[in-house]
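Action item from last week, closing it out:
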Amino acid sequence: MSIAIIGGSGLTQLTTLGEANTVSQDTPFGAHSEGVHRFQVNNSDVIFLPRHGDQHQYPPHGVNYRANLWLLKSLGITKIIACNVVGGINDNMPPKTLVVPHQIIDYTWGREHTFFDGKNTVMTGVQHIDFTYPYSEALRQRMLSFFEQSGIDHLNYGTYGCTQGPRLETAAETQRLENDGCDIVGMTAMPEAALARELEIDYASLSLVVNWAPGLAEEELSMEVIMQLVASEMEKVCHFFPNLIKFLELDH
């Protein structure tokens, strides 16, 4: 099995999978994020790609999503687990909640959101992918089975509202997101999920809630407190990755 883990904020290194080799490769879409590593875990080839770079140097709107996804495809990746740090909107999704979302609403703009842009010579023509269900349901269900059997608290649903960033949302924007049906809000699900679909890679998300969305908590948002929570909770996520990969191998 060839699987990739895409790390979000707070996950720029993955040390729980053993020794790694650095991966770097040119793509037709420019440079991919730095700090990519390859691991051998059980019988699986695992690639770790820190979305924001190894020093968290790329903001959400500045990530070269096309180069990242093209790199993973060229390395033979067939499944992607994307880690996302998000704000909670739904009352059932307070900080420290692990969510496996099932839907996306895209509020981003100006990002290179398709390989079929009519400008490159490697993905030509016009393609209209079916994006009714943006996450791979088969991969989602396997992940959910692992969490259930492992006794890891999680929620098996959630609509991810993807905003442009890098600023957080206004209280009025949070209200709009809630009215639109969003359960969580982040800045990196798109165009990543759509690009994976264009390349026919199974894609699912682990979304870690680290704060209430702006306007929903009485206290003022503190980035220091948020980043402390990101660090502690992401450490927990890192520790179950080896067992999750082993569990996913059973389907392979």
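Closing note: The first helix runs from residue 65 to 74.
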